[in-house]
Write a structure and sequence with these properties.
The chain folds into two domains: 170 residues, Rossmann fold (3-Layer(aba) Sandwich), CATH 3.40.50; 178 residues, 3-Layer(aba) Sandwich (Rossmann fold), CATH 3.40.50.2000. Helix content is 47%, strand content 15%. The radius of gyration is 23 Å and the shape is globular.
């Protein structure tokens, strides 16, 4: 009971902090605004619909990419079931609020006992599926109390997480016991859960492998990009300021190299930063797409729209995925599925696929401009090495597909 009381106090404190932050932080403002009158909004959307429902919850965009293949497969198997999709983060909700396979998309309300009861009653799902993590105590407890099947998938655990702390981990472990079944990505996660008494656990892998393979198989060329490509083209995705500086240093000292760069946030600020870094060397993607001929021969294409990145990686001889100098790298698999080597920053230790790719000789970690230059030079001047890496990259991807099928098979038996 003490742990639950502390958790509830933390939720109240979190809400207060977000309220204060919303006065000056745009993301916090969206978090608050999106939850105003949330229950009346949910009720008005789904109250008169009596179809069976499946609820998917994702923290943000990365977790949505793990949920997406399961949603697609579930829709094929159970076309009469309605899909409820919730997000905790505004960055996930704002991008995917119009996702066509979800019948309803909502923000997840703050996790309190009253909110949890109200939410589960309104949703009334047959089954609830959580992607990777985002463990909300009162919501999970209410789902269990109401007899709803609850599944966690594409999960990955580490020994240093609170669940496995012998001194203070007892309350946190309760969260895991609310799940009827847990699909994990690797053996280490499997044994960590087994060792604390979780029996309904299964190694399935990461559903993102299935997702990126599907994207690659449906690839369609981008005509305005193709004339720009040469054998020294770098495609950089989801980049932040530190990534941009490293890439600018390379481009400004290597006149034969080409760069296609898609910033993590397509905002006026991020685009202005890129234009300032590359000066007369760049052209905007939208200008190319509209058929405007640049007045110079560009060395850089700045992607100033969204939705292209998963296709763009195919055009690189080498790829770069941003975020590794901040909170963590973005989706590496989108690049590797095309058989491309991938470069990223040092903050990757929590990402299994990054560690795997380094072991496979497909992923390359950099710490500064000097390392980036050395690795890029090495890769872009050795076609045989690129060919060998391509084979290893594709082998890694296709050896790790199949998670979605395992999850759907369980759902079919238990729904």
């Amino acid at each position: 009971m003490i742990g639950t009381a502390v958790y509830w106090s933390l939720m109240k404190m979190y809400n207060l902090i977000i309220l204060l932050a919303s006065l000056f932080n745009p993301k916090a403002k969206k978090w608050i605004k999106g939850r105003k009158k949330i229950f009346s909004h949910i009720q008005s959307c789904i109250n008169n619909d009596h179809s069976p429902r499946v609820w998917f919850h994702c923290s943000s965009l990365g977790e949505f990419e793990q949920a997406r293949p399961v949603i697609e497969a579930l829709k094929e198997q159970f076309p009469d079931y309605k899909i409820i999709l919730t997000f905790f983060s505004p960055s996930g909700y704002e991008v995917r609020k119009n996702y066509n396979l979800a019948d309803w998309v909502f923000y997840l309300p703050l996790d309190t006992p009253r909110n949890a009861q109200h939410l589960v009653k309104l949703f009334n799902p047959t089954i609830a599926l959580f992607a990777k993590y985002d463990f909300w105590y009162f919501i999970l407890r209410e789902l269990k109390r109401m007899g709803v099947k609850v599944v966690l998938f594409s999960a990955i655990f580490r020994q240093n997480q609170l669940f496995f702390n012998k001194l203070i981990g007892g309350w946190y472990r309760k969260l895991l016991f609310f799940f009827d079944h847990i699909f994990v990505q690797d053996k280490n996660s499997f044994y960590l859960l087994k060792n604390i008494g979780i029996q309904s656990v299964e190694i399935a892998g990461d559903t993102r492998f299935d997702r990126v393979v599907k994207i690659a198989q449906k690839f369609k060329p981008i005509p305005c990009i193709e004339p720009f490509i040469n054998e020294k083209t770098i495609v950089a995705g989801s980049t932040w300021e530190d990534d941009d500086k490293i890439l600018a240093n390379y481009i400004n000292t290597h006149s034969q190299a080409r760069l296609i760069i898609a910033p993590h946030e397509v905002t006026h600020k991020s685009l202005h930063r890129l234009m300032k870094l590359f000066k007369e060397k760049y052209v905007l993607y939208t200008d190319l797409a509209e058929g405007k001929k640049p007045s110079h021969s560009p060395q850089v294409i700045i992607i100033n729209t969204i939705g292209l990145l998963a296709k763009l990686y195919r055009y690189g001889a080498v790829t770069y995925v941003g975020g590794g100098f901040g909170h963590g790298i973005h989706n590496l698999l989108e690049a590797v599925v095309y058989g491309k080597p991938v470069i990223f920053g040092p903050n990757h230790e929590k990402f299994k696929e990054a560690l795997d790719l380094i072991d496979y000789g497909v992923g390359f970690c950099i710490h500064d401009e000097q390392e980036a230059t050395q690795i890029l030079d090495n890769l872009l001047t050795d076609p045989d090495k690129l060919k060998d890496i391509s084979h290893r990259a594709l082998r890694y991807i296709y050896n790790n597909t199949g998670a979605t099928e395992k999850i759907i098979s369980w759902i079919i038996k238990n729904i």
